[in-house]
Specification:
By secondary structure, the chain is α/β, with parallel strands linked by helices. The protein is built from 8 helices and 7 strands; from the N terminus they run ααβααβαβαββαββα. Helix content is 40%, strand content 11%.
Length: 246
């Protein structure tokens, strides 16, 4: 065994050891969910089999809420655009990543535009950098699978930095009470905008009052949107989505 071979083998061992020592970013590691989320995922697969989806919304409970508080707003603004809602409450970046890879949610459909808003549920367990990397991983996968599809990446919406149970009687939270990690996430994912196939849009300020805080009128629990909140969302993105459909 030559010295060169020994040196190469040693370097290889060191590289493997260093790789193993690197902490795994859960936000970029596809993760399947069971129970209710799995059942909703199956419904998405059934919807995909029907095809005819020009616009696809991907996200968590805030996106799923288009079927709740945002139902009427959705019918007015997005149903005419042949839009499908693939939002699942509680999802984090890793769950959306699993859904579009191993979960095969994109099979059978060929959307012209995907609207992505995800990451708020990662705020408690991941750093801003990790969350941004998770969003980037999703965007890259969307582009890989559907190279002709444009992606509208939305900045993660503002939310309270406190649990909803601690704000039960609050009618408003001020700017100093908002989650401080999400602006950093948005600053990072804004760089995904390539001016062509990926567009970044931060509409978060539209949900805030003049003092920069949040009211229950827009977000009843300072996280999820009211009907008025969904009207703000729709009015902010309908134009850009239609432009991207051209």
């Amino acid at each position: 065994m030559t010295r060169r071979y020994l040196a190469a083998a040693l370097l290889a061992c060191v590289a493997v050891g260093l790789a193993a020592a690197q902490p795994r970013n859960s936000a970029t590691t596809p993760e399947e969910r069971k129970g209710g989320p799995a059942q909703r995922h199956e419904k998405f697969l059934e919807r995909a089999k029907k095809g005819h989806v020009d616009v696809l919304f991907l996200g968590d409970s805030i996106t799923q809420g288009w079927e709740g508080n945002g139902k009427d707003v959705w019918a007015k603004h997005f149903e005419p655009l042949n839009t499908a809602n693939f939002g699942i409450g509680g999802d984090r970046t890793q769950h959306v990543l699993w859904r579009i890879t191993e979960g095969k949610e994109l099979e059978g459909i060929d959307p012209k535009v995907a609207v992505l808003m995800i990451g708020t549920n990662n705020a408690g367990s991941n750093s801003a950098e990790e969350i941004a990397d998770g969003v980037e991983a999703i965007v890259k996968e969307l582009r890989r699978q559907k190279p002709h599809m444009k992606v509208l990446v939305l900045g993660v919406f503002p939310r309270s930095g406190k649990p909803a149970k601690d704000l039960k009687d609050a009618g408003r939270v001020g700017p100093d009470e908002l989650n401080t990690k999400l602006p950093e996430v948005n600053k990072r994912i804004a760089k995904l905008d390539d001016g062509k196939m990926v567009r970044y849009l931060d509409i978060g300020s539209k949900f805030l009052d003049k003092e920069g805080g949040l009211s229950k009128e827009i977000m009843p629990d300072f996280l999820h949107l009211s009907k008025k909140g969904y009207e703000i969302w729709a009015e902010a993105v309908e134009g850009p989505v239609k432009e991207m459909l051209k």
